[in-house]
Amino acid sequence: MVERTIEFDNFLSVEARRAWDAYWAASPHSAPRQNACYGDVEGAQNHRVVYVTGKKDGEVAFIGLYGLSPLFSRNIYSEAVCLRGPVFDDIAFGKWCLAEVLAFFSKERIGQVRIGPRWIFPEAEEVESMLFDLGFEIFERHNPLGRRSTGLISIALDDERLLASFSGYTRRQVRLADRLGIEIIEATKIEQAEEFFINIKKMYKKKALGNIARDDFFPVFDHVLKNGQVGVVLNAYSDSVYLGGLYLTRDGHTVYAYQLVVTDQANEKHRTLRLAPALFFHGMRWGREHGCTAMDLEGYSADIKGAGQLALVYLYKQGFRPSEVKSLGQYAAVVRPMIQMVDKIGRKSVASVQKPRRALARLKAFFKKKRIIG
User: Fold this and answer.
1) Which of 42, 106, 115, 245 is the most buried (most CB within 10 A)?
2) pLDDT attached to residue 272
3) Mean pLDDT, to the nearest integer, of 275-294?
4) Alpha-carbon span 159 to 169, nearest angstrom
């Protein structure tokens, strides 16, 4: 008979952290946010951190890093969030651990538990059914089925074969960046991180995507991106002029293209150059150097015309010739209904303020898309 145990900790010892990250690196269902270094990020963002470790016969077989967001005080929390996790490979054991997780958090003053295990369909169907059995409901706001669409690219190739797998236009753009002397480097200094942050913030404002706060970005830079092991920001320059950047993270198998920004200066300085292909190509090389065999485009659909305001994004991603896949989205289980209701009212109030701005941005994006692909 298998011995099952589960532990809930606010800190990990050096030995426990080593075992955690070893399982994270090996599991085919891991994701960057479940690396133990993100616990340091959660702490820096004023979140209470709970590390959940499930073991079978003394061996780690389940990990879940939960950040608890304060609602009114340090003793009441809107939700316990496990972003892109928890990580488990045995579905039956994962179900047992998640039942224990719900029981643990039901004793705390927490509104709901939100998770998003990284499983790809059709394999994910059994996990989806298991989550419903436990009382989880779909949390995704934009997809009623709760499934995310993304694109995967095989990067286990040398540079020339990788380039050859792209479309002709995308391949030419990568080579054009090289001929123009575009320099792409890892951001390791605070000044380099600042360049990326300022411009990504401008992009968020321009497209009415909400606000990206310094307190959200710089803890990630300090604990994850600066040393270039689990994540990195690649910055592009031309004659010391900042052109843009790409924010990447990885797990043991896949590198994820998280955020891209291209400045107005890039378009003014090199009108025939599309910067994104060169940045993504360097991102693939970075992932390959860290043992990854695939890149996740973090959102993609082959249906460009049906993509709405994301059409322009999917259009340039199409040049990498990805395979479109569906994966599990986010799921939530309410454990304290009253707290969850108060939090929901607060979220609706914020959304009502942002809605007109976002509607205008979507309208502008629609007409721009019609001009380009209509």
Assistant:
1) 245
2) 93
3) 98
4) 17
The angle subtended at Cα 4 by Cα 137 and Cα 26, nearest 5°, is 75
Tokens of 35: 């690396």
pLDDT of residue 347: 63
**How far apart, in whole angstroms, are the C-alpha atoms of residue 178 and residue 184?**
10
Among 114, 77, 150, 99, smallest CA distance to 307 is for 150
What does the pLDDT read at residue 73?
64
Q: Which domains are present in the chain?
A: 4-148+328-373 (3.40.630.30), 156-292 (3.40.630.30)
* CA–CA separation, 101 and 70 (whole Å): 19
Q: What is the enclosing helix (H) or strand (E) of 81?
A: strand 76-82
- What's the rounded Cα separation, in Å, for the pair 328 and 136? 13
To the nearest whole percent, how much of the chain has pLDDT over 70? Answer: 90
Rounded to an integer, the average pLDDT of 114-119 is: 97
**Tokens, residue 50:** 């709970």
Pairing of strands 294-296, 254-262: parallel
CB 238 within 8 A of CB 221: no
What is the H or E stretch that residue 250 is in? strand 241-250
Please, what is the end-to-end C-alpha distance for the chain in angstroms? 62
Q: Are 67 and 80 in contact (CB under 8 A)?
A: yes
Give the residue carrying structure tokens 């702490």: 43
For residue 260, the cross-strand partners are 246
Stated pTM of the model:
0.89
**Nearest Cα to Cα of residue 255 among 297, 207, 200:** 297
Residues 187, 282 contacting (CB under 8 angstroms): no
Query: pLDDT band at 373, cuts 50/70/90?
Result: very low
Nearest one of 77, 74, 89, 75 to 24, comparing CA atoms: 89
Tokens of 13: 């010892």
